[in-house]
Amino acid sequence: MHSRNEKELPYPTYVARFDQSVTQVVICYLGVQAKIDDHLDKFTDASHCIEKLLKHHPAGYWDHAIFFDRNGFTNHLYTLYWSDVESYNSWTSSSGIKAWWESEERETDGLGYFKEVIMPRTTHFETHYSTPEPEALGRLARAMSGEIKEHAYWGSMRDRIPASQTSSLMPNGYPTLIQDVRQKIVPHENLCVIRSGQNWSDADLEEAKLYIQEMQPSLEKGMEYLHKQGMEIGCFSNRYAKILNNSGNDSRQSFGLSFWRGLDDLEKWASSHVTHLRIFGAAHAYMNKLGAEAKLRTYHEVAIVSAGEQSYEYINCHPATGMLNAVYTS
User: How much is the pTM?
Assistant: First the structure.
């Protein structure tokens, strides 16, 4: 365990508590990309098709977000969660997604598609919430914890991962590419994936203004750095996405989703890189100003996954998409 200050902690933190029967979860990142001016109708139709399939055969929990990448593409991103592998496998065969994904139309309609799946064991992931209200993966949990002590010090993220007590969780190898019409990534051991989210949907106008003016700029700069230059510090891919509501409008929620070679690379960025230190400082200043009155909710989920717990497939995507960036940029 890392050393920590045993004095009163500066702010409360909670974690998700899963049922003992849950030993492994599944997270699928399903996306479609295009340059809007080129394929607007097809792009909209593809997104609506995915949503229709999801609404008739929902995952344990899912959300829909949109992000724009440095290559000028708009991306719809659907994040889907299941609390066991069997439920995921059953869903793929019953929902129509498998037939939709394998259709030749995915290869010929001019759009880009990606499907990234990780299946972390509960011993190899951790969660972190600023309030007892669950977000994302936490929505599959049995309950939320009370306030925990393992936070507010560098190294607490690792300490919250059960497997870290007996393993260094160091990565081994590098991802490689199987080149075909449908490009696939051969993953390496102990990839690290983090989703770090912000939800200010309950904030009043004054707090929302404070968030947008004083906290969001540092966050956006950090996300941009990881998106454009992250490979130099071990971040294979980063997406900064805005979650959409059921009507397709901005829900005042966002998240960063990044794939790292290993947990140690993520830790180094978090503890010492100027872009994250600015995010960290802005967040503390925000909370010090509002205290218990703050309505902003923040969270993250971090997973360490073995090679056998990862799957990546890309159809007509540009080379900087997701884990393709790891093999084309390295």
Answer: 0.94
